[in-house]
Design a protein that fits this description.
By secondary structure, this protein is of the alpha+beta class. The protein has eight helices and nine strands.
Length: 349
C-alpha cells in the first residue's frame, strides 16, 4: 500500500488496493526456544504476542501479511526499526538486499513457489540485538520454513543449541533450498520441451518456450542479488553475527552460486532451443519448397508440350496422325521420368 493513501477512519487491518477497501487479517506466530525448552503460539493481536516474550530465550516472530502499514509502524516502534526499513518491508517490489543498522540487520528477498508457473512473495528477515528474529511474509499460506519449524519442535539438529543469528541463517537457507526445488522442476520441463522440439515442434511449443524464457528472466532477477545479500551478511562486522555462524553463511554463499550457475545454464539451453526451433521450422519450410520446386520443374516441359498442342491451328503436323496422342503421352512420361532420375542422381531428391 502506498504511504500516500489515506486510511483514516478505516478499521484496523483494512488494506487499500487502487482505491478499493479490502480487509486483511494479519497473524503472528511466536516461537521461543532454548536448548531444553520450546514454545509455539499463534496470535491475531500484536500486543498479546508481546506479552509472551521471554528475554532469556531465542524468539522468532513470524508476521503473515505486510499491507497493514499502521501495524508495521507499530512493530517498528516496539523494536526500534528505522522508518526506511519499514518502507522496504511494506513495498513488495523491493530488489533483494541486505542492510546493516546499529541494532539490527535486515535481509529482504523473494520467496518463490512453483505450480504451473513461478510465483514470488517478498520476505523480510530482521536479526535484532535482543536475541530476536522477525520475519515478514507478504501473503498468508505456505512457506519454506516448515523444515525449520520441525527441527525446532523436535530438537533435531543444532538450531536449538545456537542463537538468533543461526536461526536467521536457517531461514535464508530454506529459501535458497527452495530455489533448487524450483530449478529441478524447470529442468524436467526443459527435458520435455527438448523432446517436443526434436519430434514435432509446433506453435504451442514456441509459446511454451517463450513462457519459460520469461520465467527464467524473472528467476534470474530474484536469484542474482542473493549472492550480494549473503556475501554482505557473511562479511558484516556486526556483533549480532557470531563467528561460528559465518562459516555456515559461507557455505550458503556457495549454494547461491550454484543456483545462479544453474539459472544461467538453463537460460543458455532455452536460447539454444529457440535457435533449434527456428532452424527446424526453416528446414521444414525448405523441404516443402524443395518438393514444390521439383514438382513445378517437372511439369514445366509437360505444360509447354500441352500448350503447343493445345493451339487452335489446322495445319499442326501431328494433328491428324493416328498415334499422335499415344506418342505424346509417351514423350511426356519419358521426360518426367528422366527428370526424376536426374534429380535423384544429383541427390536433390
Amino acid at each position: 500500500m502506498s504511504p500516500n493513501i489515506d486510511t483514516a477512519g478505516l478499521p484496523p487491518g483494512t488494506v487499500v488496493y487502487s482505491g478499493e477497501k479490502k480487509t486483511e487479517k494479519v497473524s503472528f506466530t511466536l516461537i521461543e526456544y532454548s536448548e531444553k525448552e520450546f514454545i509455539e503460539k499463534e496470535f491475531q493481536n500484536f500486543d498479546e504476542c508481546l506479552l509472551e516474550l521471554k528475554p532469556e530465550m531465542v524468539k522468532w516472530i513470524n508476521v503473515d501479511g505486510i499491507h497493514d502499514t499502521e501495524l508495521i509502524q507499530k512493530i517498528g516502534e516496539r523494536f526500534n526499526i528505522h522508518t526506511l526499513t519499514l518502507e522496504d518491508i511494506a513495498n513488495t517490489d523491493q530488489r533483494p538486499k541486505f542492510e546493516e543498522y546499529d541494532n539490527y540487520l535486515v535481509s529482504i528477498m523473494k520467496m518463490l513457489s512453483h505450480d504451473t508457473e513461478i510465483q514470488a512473495e517478498q520476505l523480510a528477515i530482521l536479526l535484532l540485538d535482543n536475541n530476536t528474529v522477525l520475519s515478514f511474509q507478504e501473503v498468508h499460506g505456505g512457506d519454506a520454513f516448515d523444515i525449520i519449524r520441525t527441527r525446532l519442535r523436535t530438537g533435531k539438529g543444532r538450531v536449538r543449541k545456537m542463537g538468533a543469528d543461526y536461526l536467521a541463517y536457517c531461514l535464508i537457507d530454506a529459501v535458497v533450498d527452495l530455489y533448487f526445488v524450483i530449478l529441478e522442476k524447470i529442468g524436467d520441463r526443459i527435458e520435455v520441451l527438448e523432446e517436443e522440439l526434436v519430434q514435432d515442434p509446433s506453435k504451442e511449443t514456441m509459446r511454451f518456450l517463450h513462457r519459460m524464457k520469461r520465467e527464467m528472466i524473472y528467476l534470474r532477477k530474484a536469484v542474482w542479488p542473493m549472492r550480494e545479500l549473503i556475501n554482505n551478511f557473511e562479511r558484516t562486522e556486526s556483533k549480532l553475527v557470531k563467528k561460528t555462524t559465518r562459516l555456515f553463511l559461507r557455505d550458503l554463499y556457495d549454494h547461491t552460486i550454484r543456483v545462479i550457475d544453474t539459472v544461467e545454464t538453463y537460460r543458455d539451453l532455452l536460447s539454444g532451443m529457440m535457435d533449434v526451433y527456428l532452424s527446424s521450422v526453416s528446414n521444414r519450410m525448405n523441404e516443402i519448397m524443395k518438393v514444390l520446386t521439383i514438382i513445378t520443374t517437372i511439369f514445366i516441359p509437360l505444360s509447354f508440350i500441352a500448350g503447343v498442342y493445345g493451339m487452335n491451328f489446322d495445319n499442326l503436323p501431328e494433328l491428324h496422325w493416328k498415334y499422335s496422342y499415344y506418342v505424346l503421352w509417351a514423350v511426356m512420361i519419358s521426360i518426367a521420368l528422366g527428370m526424376v532420375f536426374y534429380f535423384k542422381r544429383r541427390k536433390w531428391l
